């Protein structure tokens, strides 16, 4: 397997560990692979995997004038109707539905949500 050369990097403000725990609980093979904490308990640097894809995250100690935006989202190709329904339900709890689950050309189901941490997810179930 080729080493991944580009990794999605998520910057949180005190919620990185909660977000990683939430995300890895939703995906069957999700796992936190490394985590380094700062003295105050926030995440200095961490890595986790979802569906074989590696991610990095931190907790920024600086308050920024920006956060996550739906213009960049994580696109997930689901394996079943049960999986897309569960992910849509859980990821939209406390967040918002940007596009409700429905049929699109080439897709049995598609939905777009922004989770409670501000990260956007496009969920797809391809037609078989």
TrEMBL record:
InterPro entries (UniProt xref): 3_dmu_93_MTrfase, Glyas_Bleomycin-R_OHBP_Dase, PhnB-like
Chain ranges of the PhnB-like domain: 4-123
Stated name of the protein: VOC family protein
Naturally occurring in which organism (per UniProt): Fictibacillus barbaricus
């Amino acid at each position: 397997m080729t080493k991944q050369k580009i990794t999605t990097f998520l910057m949180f403000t005190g919620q990185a560990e909660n977000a990683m725990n939430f995300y890895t609980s939703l995906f069957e093979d999700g796992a936190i692979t490394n985590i380094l904490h700062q003295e105050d308990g926030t995440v200095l640097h961490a890595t986790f995997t979802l569906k074989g894809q590696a991610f990095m995250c931190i907790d920024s100690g600086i308050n920024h004038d920006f956060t996550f935006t739906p213009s960049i989202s994580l696109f997930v190709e689901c394996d079943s109707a049960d999986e897309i329904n569960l992910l849509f339900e859980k990821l939209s709890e406390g967040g918002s539905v940007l596009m409700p689950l429905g049929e699109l050309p080439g897709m049995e189901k598609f939905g777009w949500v922004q989770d409670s941490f501000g990260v956007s997810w496009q969920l797809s179930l391809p037609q078989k």
